[in-house]
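Researcher: We're teaching a course module on how sequence relates to structure. For the next exercise, students receive a sequence and then see the predicted structure as tokens, so they can try to spot secondary structure elements on their own. Here is the exercise chain.
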Amino acid sequence: MANCLPKLALGAWAWGNDGTFGDHLTENDLRPVFDAAMEVGLTLWDNAYVYGMGASERVMGKFLRTVPRESYQISAKFTPQCANPKAENAVIEMYQTSADLLGTDFMDFYWIHNPVGAPKWIKSLIPLAKRGKIGKIGVSNHNLAEIRQAQEILSAEGLRISAVQNHYSLINRSSERSGILDYCKANDIIFFSYMVLEQGALTGAFDRNHPFPKASERGQVYNPLLPQLEVLNDGIRKIADKYGVDIPQVPIAWAIAKGTLPIVGATKTKHVYDAKKAADLQLSGEDMAELEAIAEKAGLNTIRYWEKEMK
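Model: And here is the predicted structure for the students to work with:
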């Protein structure tokens, strides 16, 4: 399997067409995205069965079957709310469903998607790990106490948490303020930052004259915040212009500079090329401080219904 991690992962949440993004993406839309990513070396893919209840994994699996297994890494998740209550081991069942859809018998990263029902699901994951079916065990949307609890359970079995995945962006830094980032650094845990572009809100593509799709979930969340987001994006644009890059590349580069591995949603080839450029962009300390100051001034709260303020 591929061992070298790129600086960021590409996310396939929107590939599930579950209404979050308001898109109706087809295989023909997404195949060029996949091909462009593989060509530029962005070969770590983040997915989950819950993204369209298998729809995203099914499409991605068709693409992955056309390339060598050693040429990519896959990240998939067990979502407690989707667990089969009649299954002998719901984690193993969902893992196998995802594995079948994706066309693999090994997950480079496998996550407990959120702490609902914890620590039961961490314990249920242990047989898979001991059978060599998981490269790195991760937990997502967990606070520091929950991460520590999971680590303790796994340590007793000779295993460990290797990755944490939380919402982290210029306007949601609660995983930093709560000490989760520091804990991860101290314990050699990779921190995956998801929604680093706030589902497109930090790209400059949307404003009051060009709102998000009204019927989409993200439209309901971000459209009321567009006046503040316009001001924030204007500040980001000034730094982007300084480096001769586009707006989306700056928040991604910021997240990398903070020591995290961003997950960047990719539904167009432009998203892939922006991500690649962001991975090569190095911001100055002054730029980092300015970005954080303008984001703080915006005073936005984008914690979503499935999340919590990390404490």
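Model: If you want an answer key for the exercise: The two ends are 36 Å apart (CA to CA). Residues 125 and 259 are 27 Å apart (CA to CA).
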